[in-house]
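**Backbone shape codes:**
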Amino acid sequence: MDLKTLNQSEPAALLTELGGLYEHSPWIVEGALAQRPFASLAAFKRACFEVLARATPEAQRALICAHPELAGKAMVAQQLTAESTDEQSRAGLTHCSPEEFATLQRLNTAYGQRFGWPFILAVRGPRGLGLSRSEIISTFERRLDGHPDFEFQECLRQIHRIAELRLAEKFGEDLSAGEQVWDWAEQLAVHSEADDALTVTYMSPAHRACARKLAGWMQSCGFDEVQIDALGNVVGRYFGSDPSAPLLMTGSHYDTVRNGGRYDGRLGILVAMATVQGMKALGHRPRHGLELVAFAEEEAQRFPATFLAASALVGRFEPQWLAQQDAQSVTMAEALQAAGHGAQPSAQLDSIAALQRDPKQYLGFVEVHIEQGPVLDAAGLPLGVVSSINGSHRYTGEIVGQASHAGTTPMGAGRRDAAAAAAELVLQVERIATQLPEAVGTVGMLEVPGGSINVVPGRCRFSLDLRAPRDAVRDRLRDEVLHALDAICERRGLHYSLRPTLSIDAAPSHPDWQARWEAAVQRLGLPVHRMPSGAGHDAMKMHEILPQAMLFVRGGNAGISHNPLETVSAHDAQLAVEAFEILWNSL
């Protein structure tokens, strides 16, 4: 099939061909076909999503219940649809060991009793090749603990993914670029400081191995120049057809948090690589060349210098950072020296200073990044356009009261309970942030030093993370939270200390560059979804010297990030590559 067939064939014929996309529920495809013509296959999938989203809860539940259990009675009796038979077979469910089969039957029963509908999982997975039986069982066990409302929506999301995979086969959809991005991410994740988790911190052996691998891939993709610079950034340049034209800069980071995911940062590097690979294969060069920077550090996991790699490019690298020590008392200067980047701090500083970019040589900076949140996944959208990167204020603090006997100290004004004050602060942060547009506030750390079960806490340490996409809102959030902290402590007879640890301004997307991302998304047949970025990114540092804008890619598993469950599908990665190519060619 092709798009012309989809747009012009009789509905009855199309229903015969496509009615099985959604298990025993052709009404979804029928409703979507009423919205023809479609600009792309992605637009048709979006129409199907909207039909199901408008359906009654009863109709949605019936769709879920139309799906068979995994390795259930229908499979044993060979009563599955052809599509389900193929999918369960690809995942190896038709070849379960007796122990695996017994586990799946137990899970099917427990899930049905808890939720009242069958467990739904796109067993072909994000790449389409099929999840392993162990992956299926671990996902089953994890989701069994979910909230019913969430699990209901997750089943619907999995159903859409199943339909997407079925549709791709009917249309012979070319996903080569997205599959390459997915494969690269898997291969890069082989390098880690931990055997059982993905951890890549600055200038560790795993980090340096990633740099070498990225440099080799960039050369294979067709970049004209590739180098690993004085800070470990991997920089590739693909020349444009006009040597005098300024470059487009793109990139993201390849370091990770501890026990992190495969796509945070890395997705933006790999999407640009796949785009260059495609252009090189076609012998095509846009007018403006591309500089891709795989930033060596963004997460501040080994040393506390955040954005140290991007800071050098904008001329904001702080010399004192070289003296910062990691948990083993190794300084940054020593770590760079061990990696072959200069023998002395003075020489290192000279090399780092030479990394500063001249804004006149660049058009702007764009970054592709996994969303790291649930918004796009919940909305059924593969791509989102970032309107602004949140600015933030961060603090660590301590509330001080009076430790006393938990049994003999009466309740009321006589108690000086520091933990109770911190608990009140948590609720005030939640209340204040909820009332301000697009603001978020979090107390991520709470600690009672030397706490005991029978002692009223005399001290409580806490953190504050306050963010908003506009500085005025961020500052108002800070002012109201600190006012609330003052009032809480005054009323309870306590005092506190507060130490700022980070203050960074918001980075609004440049209107022209945001519009370019929006035009690319529209060209793909998708609705434009504008959203702020709650997380920080290299783009907010490059924002200091260049106009910038970001494209978000949907994360699976409800958008979870900084977590091994972080994932994207090959379909969504393909769309990201196509959007990047559209933007670059439009310059």
User: Anything to note?
Assistant: The chain has a mean pLDDT of 95. The chain is about 45% helix and 15% strand. Residues 107 and 475 are 49 Å apart (CA to CA).
